[in-house]
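worker-3 :: picked Capsular polysaccharide biosynthesis protein
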Amino acid sequence: MRKFARGIIVLLLVTILGGVGSYLYEYNTIKDMYKSVAQLYVVPGEANEATLRAENGGLKDDFSIVLNSDVVLSAAKNLAGTSENLKKYLTVNSVANSNIIELVIVNPDQNTAKTYVDAIAATAVKTTTIIPVESIQILSEGTSTGDSFKPDLMLKTVRLTALVALVTFALEMLVLFFYLAFRKRPEIEDEYYDYEREYGAKSKKRSNKRFENDYIAPNVSNDAIVEFDEYISKSNKEKEAVETEAKAEEAVAETEAKVEETVAETEAIVDEAVVEAEIKTEEAKTEEVETAEKAEESVVKTAKTETKEEPKLAEVAANEDEVAESKEVETKAEEKVEVKKKKLKIFGRVKK
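worker-3 :: tokens ->
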């Protein structure tokens, strides 16, 4: 159905374009023509009234036959001073319900048309001996308006447009026949073929004449249509599942990357804290060592003085107590640092 609609659209477009092209072609090809009209008044007479009157109330075609005869046209050519065939330019009309006859000359030149029609009118006045009438008089001489026209422009345009449309239709039919005669089997990826490959055995009873790569269109029954819709729906769901899984994997990868960055930042902060704690511990140790050294120096000085004063011994004992307390403080500080290290290691493992 789509191919048929496309063919109709192409035919319409080509016909429209062909019509426009035909009009332009005919307009530029047809020469401009000029018209000159002269009128004759005929007085039939009472005796000839019935024989010369036509059914439409005008005069019979006898006048047209006589005025187009060689006798009248030869005399008109001599009067106009030309050797052209005036018959191809002349048209004789009988006006209904009147005694008037119109002589019409169409020629590419306005003056020539007037000259010819006046010559024919002057000759027609002398034909009373051929047609039995009382008299023929010139009612009006040939007109000279100067308005040009293109004869049969629309008629020729329509004919040429119809020819273009006919040729286009014939070409479309030829292309269609070639397509039907030489078209290839659809590709394996075609949805209809996939449907037939999976569900064809259920919807059709063709076992002997069906091969593996045969293409068979789906059955038009309601069951087959329902199965085909289910197959398409299933394919769409599988595609959506694959896309959802891919998006989930991307989200998981992004989350893991963020966690790793957070853990790395945390480890860097912990390392900095450990380094600062170690530095502070070393500084405390250094201070305690200096205090102990000063205490030992004071003890040595006290021993050298060999004084037995109890206040001095009490000061030495107090210094020794201070040394012992400083060692205890140092031991507790080291234990606290070890505990902090263990806690930081456990915290880092949990984060990982």
